[in-house]
Amino acid sequence: MGSAPSPASRVVEYVPDTVTRSVKLLVAGAFGVGKTTFVGAISEIRPLRTEETITEASVGVDDMYGLPDKTTTTVAMDFGRISINPSLVLYLFGTPGQQRFRPLWEELSRGALGALVLVDTRRLDKADEVLSTLESGRVPYAVAVNEFDGGPRYELTEVREALDLAPETPLISLDARERAGCLEALITLCEYLFQRLEAQS
Predict the structure, then answer these.
(1) Which superkingdom (predicted)?
(2) Could you write out the three-class secondary structure of 115-153?
């Protein structure tokens, strides 16, 4: 897999005339799972980021366990765009990971067709809160295991069982730094969401 192009090399800033459908998707997950990295890797435009440096004010508030190298955090959202084909564009909204930003999660979920939830095997239990929030808001989702360097590797069946996912919930693995895997995850999510819509109609 190749690495993502640098933001400066992305010159497509407009939506082509061929686009007939746009979809709003969330990129959700707990604190530090790689949401900002994911949006940055896949967006065809320079992503909008609202990152701030983590300060002493986070001590005792944000759970930094297992994240020794994390120095910034998203305080509002990440925003990116990706064209799936000439007629379909996805607008990606990365959510902040901490519970204290839950009102923002709820606002960002308005109008979203679904969500891709990133999880980290080093802190798998942190996904429960995010999954519960999406379920209570009736936002359908797929789950992607972001495979961090040095992190434990588990079979996807084990992850599915640990997260108590429904059998129909898509579950894949990826490296959030690699565009190809991120794109595959979004396509998997979109196929799942469109199948749900067809079944409902």
Answers:
(1) Bacteria
(2) EEEEECHHHHHHHHHHHHHHHHCCCCEEEEEECCCCCCC
Pairing of strands 78-85, 88-94: antiparallel
Q: Where are the domains of the chain?
A: 21-55+71-199
For 155-187, b/e burial (b = at least 16 CB within 10 A) is eeeebbeebebeeebbbebbbbbbbebbeebbe
Assigned CATH class of 21-55+71-199: alpha beta
Question: What predicted TM-score, i.e. pTM, was given to this entire model?
Answer: 0.78
**3-state secondary structure labels for all residues of 64-88:** CCCCCCCCEEECCCEEEEEEEECCE
Q: Provide the residue-wise pLDDT of the chain in tens; the chain has 201 residues.
A: 445 555 445 455 677 778 888 899 999 999 889 999 999 999 998 877 655 554 454 444 455 455 555 555 554 578 999 988 889 899 999 988 556 556 676 777 889 999 999 999 999 999 998 999 899 889 999 999 999 998 899 999 999 999 999 999 999 999 999 999 999 999 999 999 999 999 988
For residue 184, give both structure tokens.
């595959």
DSSP type of residue 8: G
